[in-house]
Specification:
Chain lengths: ~140, ~140
DNA sequence: CTATTTGACTTAATTAATGAAAGGATTTTA
DNA sequence: TAAAATCCTTTCATTAATTAAGTCAAATAG
Protein backbone atom coordinates (compact mmCIF):
# COMPACT_ATOMS: atom_id res chain seq x y z
CA UNK A 1 0.00 0.00 0.00
CA UNK A 2 2.81 2.46 0.84
CA UNK A 3 5.64 2.43 -1.65
CA UNK A 4 9.18 3.77 -1.36
CA UNK A 5 8.18 7.22 -2.58
CA UNK A 6 5.48 7.47 0.07
CA UNK A 7 8.03 6.56 2.73
CA UNK A 8 10.41 9.23 1.46
CA UNK A 9 7.59 11.77 1.52
CA UNK A 10 6.81 10.88 5.13
CA UNK A 11 10.49 11.21 5.98
CA UNK A 12 10.74 14.65 4.40
CA UNK A 13 7.55 15.85 6.09
CA UNK A 14 8.79 14.52 9.42
CA UNK A 15 11.92 16.64 8.98
CA UNK A 16 10.02 19.69 7.75
CA UNK A 17 6.28 19.67 7.44
CA UNK A 18 6.21 23.22 6.07
CA UNK A 19 8.15 22.33 2.94
CA UNK A 20 6.36 23.41 -0.25
CA UNK A 21 4.84 20.68 -2.41
CA UNK A 22 7.13 21.83 -5.20
CA UNK A 23 10.27 21.30 -3.10
CA UNK A 24 8.90 18.03 -1.74
CA UNK A 25 8.32 16.92 -5.30
CA UNK A 26 11.89 17.76 -6.26
CA UNK A 27 13.24 15.73 -3.36
CA UNK A 28 11.31 12.61 -4.38
CA UNK A 29 11.58 13.17 -8.15
CA UNK A 30 7.99 14.14 -8.82
CA UNK A 31 6.24 17.32 -9.85
CA UNK A 32 4.73 19.38 -7.06
CA UNK A 33 1.27 18.32 -8.15
CA UNK A 34 2.06 14.62 -8.02
CA UNK A 35 3.67 15.01 -4.59
CA UNK A 36 0.64 16.93 -3.40
CA UNK A 37 -1.72 14.19 -4.61
CA UNK A 38 0.25 11.58 -2.71
CA UNK A 39 0.19 13.69 0.44
CA UNK A 40 -3.59 14.10 0.18
CA UNK A 41 -3.91 10.32 -0.07
CA UNK A 42 -1.68 9.84 2.96
CA UNK A 43 -3.90 12.27 4.87
CA UNK A 44 -7.16 10.64 3.77
CA UNK A 45 -5.92 7.15 4.56
CA UNK A 46 -5.03 8.33 8.07
CA UNK A 47 -1.30 7.62 7.83
CA UNK A 48 -0.64 11.32 8.34
CA UNK A 49 -2.69 12.28 11.40
CA UNK A 50 -1.70 15.93 11.48
CA UNK A 51 0.89 18.64 11.07
CA UNK A 52 2.53 20.02 14.18
CA UNK A 53 5.61 21.70 15.64
CA UNK A 54 8.43 20.74 17.97
CA UNK A 55 8.66 23.19 20.84
CA UNK A 56 11.55 23.93 23.14
CA UNK A 57 9.89 23.35 26.50
CA UNK A 58 12.67 25.07 28.42
CA UNK A 59 12.34 28.24 26.35
CA UNK A 60 8.58 28.08 26.87
CA UNK A 61 9.21 28.26 30.59
CA UNK A 62 8.96 24.55 31.38
CA UNK A 63 12.33 23.71 32.92
CA UNK A 64 11.31 20.23 34.06
CA UNK A 65 10.34 17.39 31.73
CA UNK A 66 9.24 14.15 33.35
CA UNK A 67 7.60 10.76 33.00
CA UNK A 68 5.45 9.60 35.88
CA UNK A 69 4.33 5.99 36.22
CA UNK A 70 0.88 5.93 37.80
CA UNK A 71 -0.50 3.29 40.15
CA UNK A 72 -4.16 4.10 40.74
CA UNK A 73 -5.41 3.40 44.26
CA UNK A 74 -8.91 2.31 43.33
CA UNK A 75 -10.22 0.16 40.51
CA UNK A 76 -12.24 3.17 39.34
CA UNK A 77 -9.90 5.31 37.28
CA UNK A 78 -12.33 8.18 36.75
CA UNK A 79 -11.16 10.37 39.64
CA UNK A 80 -7.59 10.10 38.40
CA UNK A 81 -8.59 10.78 34.77
CA UNK A 82 -10.64 13.82 35.79
CA UNK A 83 -7.72 15.12 37.82
CA UNK A 84 -5.38 14.75 34.84
CA UNK A 85 -7.78 16.65 32.61
CA UNK A 86 -7.75 19.53 35.08
CA UNK A 87 -3.95 19.83 34.91
CA UNK A 88 -3.91 21.09 31.32
CA UNK A 89 -0.61 22.86 30.76
CA UNK A 90 1.46 20.27 32.60
CA UNK A 91 0.26 17.13 30.82
CA UNK A 92 1.63 16.25 27.39
CA UNK A 93 0.38 12.64 27.12
CA UNK A 94 -1.36 10.19 29.39
CA UNK A 95 -0.57 6.72 28.04
CA UNK A 96 -2.62 3.79 29.23
CA UNK A 97 -0.16 0.95 29.61
CA UNK A 98 0.17 -2.66 30.44
CA UNK A 99 3.16 -3.61 32.54
CA UNK A 100 4.26 -1.67 35.58
CA UNK A 101 1.51 0.73 36.58
CA UNK A 102 -1.74 1.69 34.88
CA UNK A 103 -0.67 4.86 33.11
CA UNK A 104 2.48 6.61 32.02
CA UNK A 105 2.28 10.40 32.21
CA UNK A 106 4.48 12.49 29.99
CA UNK A 107 4.54 15.96 31.50
CA UNK A 108 6.35 19.24 32.07
CA UNK A 109 6.58 21.81 34.84
CA UNK A 110 7.94 25.33 35.17
CA UNK A 111 9.64 24.62 38.51
CA UNK A 112 10.27 22.07 41.22
CA UNK A 113 7.65 23.87 43.25
CA UNK A 114 4.99 23.34 40.56
CA UNK A 115 6.04 19.70 40.25
CA UNK A 116 5.82 19.26 44.00
CA UNK A 117 2.35 20.79 44.16
CA UNK A 118 1.26 18.55 41.30
CA UNK A 119 2.60 15.43 43.01
CA UNK A 120 0.84 16.30 46.26
CA UNK A 121 -2.46 16.70 44.39
CA UNK A 122 -1.81 13.56 42.33
CA UNK A 123 -1.29 11.57 45.51
CA UNK A 124 -4.96 12.04 46.35
CA UNK A 125 -5.76 9.66 43.51
CA UNK A 126 -2.72 7.55 42.79
CA UNK A 127 0.71 6.40 43.78
CA UNK A 128 3.53 7.12 41.39
CA UNK A 129 7.14 6.71 40.38
CA UNK A 130 8.85 9.82 39.05
CA UNK A 131 11.45 9.86 36.25
CA UNK A 132 12.88 13.24 35.35
CA UNK A 133 14.30 13.61 31.84
CA UNK A 134 17.92 14.73 31.86
CA UNK A 135 18.59 14.62 28.14
CA UNK A 136 17.05 14.15 24.74
CA UNK B 1 9.37 37.78 26.06
CA UNK B 2 6.47 35.74 24.68
CA UNK B 3 3.16 37.57 24.72
CA UNK B 4 -0.36 36.25 24.43
CA UNK B 5 -0.33 36.50 20.63
CA UNK B 6 2.84 34.40 20.46
CA UNK B 7 1.20 31.77 22.63
CA UNK B 8 -1.83 31.70 20.37
CA UNK B 9 0.41 31.37 17.33
CA UNK B 10 2.18 28.40 18.93
CA UNK B 11 -1.18 26.87 19.74
CA UNK B 12 -2.40 27.23 16.17
CA UNK B 13 0.83 25.84 14.72
CA UNK B 14 0.68 22.92 17.15
CA UNK B 15 -2.78 22.13 15.78
CA UNK B 16 -1.81 22.66 12.17
CA UNK B 17 1.70 23.60 11.20
CA UNK B 18 0.82 23.80 7.51
CA UNK B 19 -1.62 26.66 7.97
CA UNK B 20 -0.86 29.62 5.69
CA UNK B 21 0.53 32.76 7.29
CA UNK B 22 -2.52 34.59 6.01
CA UNK B 23 -4.92 32.25 7.82
CA UNK B 24 -2.73 32.23 10.92
CA UNK B 25 -2.84 36.02 10.90
CA UNK B 26 -6.62 36.00 10.69
CA UNK B 27 -6.84 33.69 13.68
CA UNK B 28 -4.71 35.95 15.87
CA UNK B 29 -5.95 39.26 14.43
CA UNK B 30 -2.83 40.22 12.50
CA UNK B 31 -1.97 40.51 8.84
CA UNK B 32 -0.26 37.52 7.28
CA UNK B 33 2.99 39.45 7.15
CA UNK B 34 2.92 40.36 10.84
CA UNK B 35 2.14 36.75 11.77
CA UNK B 36 4.95 35.56 9.53
CA UNK B 37 7.41 37.95 11.21
CA UNK B 38 6.46 36.64 14.62
CA UNK B 39 6.89 33.05 13.46
CA UNK B 40 10.36 33.84 12.11
CA UNK B 41 11.28 35.31 15.50
CA UNK B 42 9.97 32.24 17.29
CA UNK B 43 12.10 30.09 14.98
CA UNK B 44 15.23 32.21 15.43
CA UNK B 45 14.87 32.32 19.20
CA UNK B 46 14.64 28.52 19.23
CA UNK B 47 11.16 28.32 20.74
CA UNK B 48 9.99 26.57 17.58
CA UNK B 49 12.49 23.77 17.02
CA UNK B 50 10.94 22.37 13.88
CA UNK B 51 7.89 21.47 11.84
CA UNK B 52 6.83 17.86 11.79
CA UNK B 53 3.93 15.42 11.34
CA UNK B 54 1.96 13.06 13.54
CA UNK B 55 2.00 9.58 12.05
CA UNK B 56 -0.35 6.67 12.68
CA UNK B 57 2.17 4.02 13.72
CA UNK B 58 -0.34 1.21 13.30
CA UNK B 59 -1.07 2.18 9.70
CA UNK B 60 2.66 2.42 9.11
CA UNK B 61 2.94 -1.21 10.08
CA UNK B 62 4.02 -0.74 13.71
CA UNK B 63 1.30 -2.48 15.70
CA UNK B 64 3.15 -2.27 19.02
CA UNK B 65 4.02 0.96 20.81
CA UNK B 66 6.02 0.64 24.01
CA UNK B 67 8.08 2.31 26.69
CA UNK B 68 11.02 0.37 28.05
CA UNK B 69 12.80 1.39 31.24
CA UNK B 70 16.47 0.54 30.91
CA UNK B 71 18.83 -0.59 33.67
CA UNK B 72 22.32 -0.76 32.20
CA UNK B 73 24.45 -3.58 33.50
CA UNK B 74 27.79 -1.80 33.45
CA UNK B 75 28.73 1.76 34.39
CA UNK B 76 29.87 2.24 30.79
CA UNK B 77 26.77 3.08 28.79
CA UNK B 78 28.48 3.11 25.40
CA UNK B 79 27.66 -0.48 24.39
CA UNK B 80 24.01 0.14 25.16
CA UNK B 81 23.98 3.48 23.32
CA UNK B 82 25.63 1.93 20.27
CA UNK B 83 23.12 -0.87 20.29
CA UNK B 84 20.23 1.61 20.40
CA UNK B 85 21.68 3.51 17.46
CA UNK B 86 21.73 0.30 15.43
CA UNK B 87 18.02 -0.30 16.01
CA UNK B 88 16.90 2.66 13.87
CA UNK B 89 13.31 2.04 12.86
CA UNK B 90 12.22 0.76 16.25
CA UNK B 91 13.48 3.63 18.42
CA UNK B 92 11.53 6.87 18.64
CA UNK B 93 13.28 8.47 21.64
CA UNK B 94 15.91 7.43 24.13
CA UNK B 95 15.42 9.64 27.19
CA UNK B 96 18.17 9.80 29.76
CA UNK B 97 16.41 9.92 33.09
CA UNK B 98 16.94 10.21 36.79
CA UNK B 99 14.73 8.01 38.95
CA UNK B 100 14.06 4.39 38.21
CA UNK B 101 16.50 3.19 35.57
CA UNK B 102 19.05 5.05 33.46
CA UNK B 103 17.04 5.52 30.27
CA UNK B 104 13.46 5.42 29.10
CA UNK B 105 13.06 4.10 25.58
CA UNK B 106 10.04 5.13 23.52
CA UNK B 107 9.75 2.62 20.72
CA UNK B 108 7.59 0.74 18.23
CA UNK B 109 7.57 -2.70 16.64
CA UNK B 110 5.74 -4.35 13.78
CA UNK B 111 5.03 -7.53 15.74
CA UNK B 112 5.53 -9.37 19.00
CA UNK B 113 8.20 -11.37 17.25
CA UNK B 114 10.19 -8.24 16.38
CA UNK B 115 9.75 -6.98 19.93
CA UNK B 116 10.92 -10.30 21.31
CA UNK B 117 14.01 -10.33 19.09
CA UNK B 118 14.77 -6.78 20.16
CA UNK B 119 14.43 -7.61 23.86
CA UNK B 120 16.73 -10.61 23.50
CA UNK B 121 19.37 -8.43 21.84
CA UNK B 122 18.82 -5.62 24.36
CA UNK B 123 19.40 -8.04 27.19
CA UNK B 124 23.04 -8.34 26.14
CA UNK B 125 23.55 -4.80 27.39
CA UNK B 126 20.84 -4.01 29.89
CA UNK B 127 17.97 -5.16 32.05
CA UNK B 128 14.60 -3.65 31.39
CA UNK B 129 10.96 -3.21 32.36
CA UNK B 130 8.50 -3.25 29.50
CA UNK B 131 5.34 -1.11 29.34
CA UNK B 132 3.16 -1.57 26.28
CA UNK B 133 0.91 1.33 25.33
CA UNK B 134 -2.76 0.34 25.14
CA UNK B 135 -4.25 3.72 24.38
CA UNK B 136 -3.50 7.31 23.52
C1' DC C 1 -6.62 -10.21 -28.56
C1' DT C 2 -8.62 -5.82 -28.45
C1' DA C 3 -11.22 -2.28 -25.96
C1' DT C 4 -12.01 -0.08 -21.68
C1' DT C 5 -10.96 1.28 -17.30
C1' DT C 6 -7.98 2.73 -13.80
C1' DG C 7 -4.12 4.91 -11.49
C1' DA C 8 -0.33 7.84 -11.48
C1' DC C 9 1.62 11.30 -13.49
C1' DT C 10 2.42 15.86 -16.36
C1' DT C 11 1.23 20.31 -18.41
C1' DA C 12 -1.15 24.63 -18.49
C1' DA C 13 -3.91 28.32 -16.65
C1' DT C 14 -5.99 30.52 -12.83
C1' DT C 15 -6.04 31.77 -8.12
C1' DA C 16 -3.76 32.50 -3.83
C1' DA C 17 0.23 33.07 -0.78
C1' DT C 18 4.79 34.69 0.10
C1' DG C 19 8.51 38.05 0.41
C1' DA C 20 10.50 42.62 -0.08
C1' DA C 21 10.18 47.46 0.37
C1' DA C 22 8.27 51.62 2.17
C1' DG C 23 6.00 53.88 5.60
C1' DG C 24 2.78 54.90 9.86
C1' DA C 25 1.95 54.74 14.84
C1' DT C 26 3.39 53.98 19.42
C1' DT C 27 6.69 53.16 22.94
C1' DT C 28 11.61 53.56 24.66
C1' DT C 29 15.66 55.80 25.36
C1' DA C 30 18.83 59.71 25.52
C1' DT D 1 11.87 67.12 22.79
C1' DA D 2 14.20 64.43 19.50
C1' DA D 3 15.93 60.07 17.93
C1' DA D 4 15.58 55.25 17.78
C1' DA D 5 13.31 51.05 18.01
C1' DT D 6 9.39 48.05 17.69
C1' DC D 7 5.47 46.39 15.63
C1' DC D 8 2.41 46.67 12.44
C1' DT D 9 0.11 47.73 7.61
C1' DT D 10 -0.08 48.43 2.62
C1' DT D 11 1.46 47.54 -1.95
C1' DC D 12 3.48 45.00 -5.57
C1' DA D 13 6.40 41.57 -7.78
C1' DT D 14 7.46 36.78 -7.39
C1' DT D 15 6.41 32.19 -6.36
C1' DA D 16 3.44 28.32 -5.12
C1' DA D 17 -1.06 25.94 -4.87
C1' DT D 18 -5.14 24.55 -7.09
C1' DT D 19 -7.99 23.06 -10.74
C1' DA D 20 -8.81 21.04 -15.11
C1' DA D 21 -7.43 18.61 -19.07
C1' DG D 22 -4.75 15.30 -21.09
C1' DT D 23 -0.86 11.46 -21.52
C1' DC D 24 0.72 6.97 -20.69
C1' DA D 25 1.09 2.32 -19.03
C1' DA D 26 -0.79 -1.46 -16.63
C1' DA D 27 -4.78 -4.06 -15.23
C1' DT D 28 -9.36 -5.81 -16.37
C1' DA D 29 -13.28 -7.24 -19.11
C1' DG D 30 -15.59 -8.68 -23.18
Amino acid sequence: MLDKTDMRILEELTNNSRITMKELGEKVHLTGQAASERVVKLENSGVIEGYTIDLNQTKLGYAIYAFITIFTQSANHQPYLSFIKSQEPYIIHNYKISGEGCYLLECRFPSNEALNDFLIALNEHANYKLSIVIDK
